[in-house]
Task: structure prediction
Amino acid sequence: MTPRERVLAAINHQKVDRLPADIKCVSSIHTRLMERTGAVDAEELFQYFGIDMRRIGANYQISGFIQRQGRLHSHHRPSPNGRYPVGQHPVHV
Result:
């Protein structure tokens, strides 16, 4: 099975040839693994270890609030540059 087939089959509760492999580590460990294996990028490192999962994400900035019901949690305040700390997005109550 290809990594994609393996992951999709596992998500759909179907038989797989082996469990899909995943890795998550801090950047310093990631860098050391790349140095030790000679990998030139994350994809090459994942292939070296047989990692099936890939993460996708988006970088975004919240420039203002859309207030519903007129209130916002007080601990969700942007920094002076208008950005929110990681993991702190406006929560409406």
Observations:
- The longest helix spans residues 27-37.
- The chain has three helices and no strands.
